[in-house]
Amino acid sequence: MNRTIEAPIIGYLDGMASTLTRILVHVTFSTKNRAALIPETIEPDLYAYIGGICRRMESPLLAMGGVADHAHMLVSLGKAVALSDLMLNVKRDSSKWMKERDAALGAFGWQDGYFGFSIGESGVDALRAYIADQKQRHKTTDFKDEMRAFLRKYGVEWDERYVWD
User: Fold this and answer.
1) What are the pLDDT digits (tens) for 80-94?
2) CA 47 to chain centre
3) Which residue segments constitute the domains of the chain, with CATH numbers given?
4) Do residues 24 and 119 make contact, with C-beta atoms less than 8 angstroms apart?
């Protein structure tokens, strides 16, 4: 005998498919050659501008901070957005914005790559505190040492010849 089992279809609301995600990513990237090009007075506006880029890409910026030569972002990556696409837009558009904002920043640019690490919801508060403490932390730790520590923490293998630009 042939039987059909009827079960509710999970993931449909009123006949429409629903995809719900929470993909949290910690992204760090530096200025080109780690030059100290981000004036502290511009940081809040720069971070707000980057927040707008993230919103446009349906990837809310949850926290951002940094120092003159690099920035950290906590992002909730959109369900249809590749991290590489988000970062292309963030770096391209914010670099252009920095150059237009101040003629003295005409040489501004970001490093070619970035560092991206997934985090769980349980790590959000600690990462927010870490990002907020950047000014203090970088009185004693440089960007490369900070990134090496993250690469070790997340088990990422790297080659010093290619990771810094």
Assistant:
1) 999 999 999 999 999
2) 11
3) 20-163 (3.30.70.1290)
4) yes
76 Cα distance to chain centroid: 9
**Alpha helices, H only, the chain:** 43-56, 83-101, 124-132, 134-137, 143-153, 160-163
- What are residue 64's DSSP bridge partners? 73
Tens digits of residue pLDDT in 40-76 = 999 999 999 999 999 999 999 999 999 999 999 999 9
* Stretch (H or E) spanning 75: strand 70-77
The pair of three-digit structure tokens given for residue 76, joined into one six-digit string: 């909730």
**Burial status of residue 34 (CB atoms within 10 A of its CB: 0-12, 13-18, 19 or more):** middle
Count other Cβ atoms within 10 Å, centred on residue 119: 15
Contact predicate 10/19, CB 8 Å: no
Edge to edge, the sheet with strand 23-30 lists 61-67, 70-77, 23-30, 115-119
Euclidean distance between CA atoms 158 and 135, whole angstroms: 26
Token pair of 79, please? Answer: 């369900």
Tokens describing residue 116: 């991206």
Q: Which amino acid is at 42?
A: I
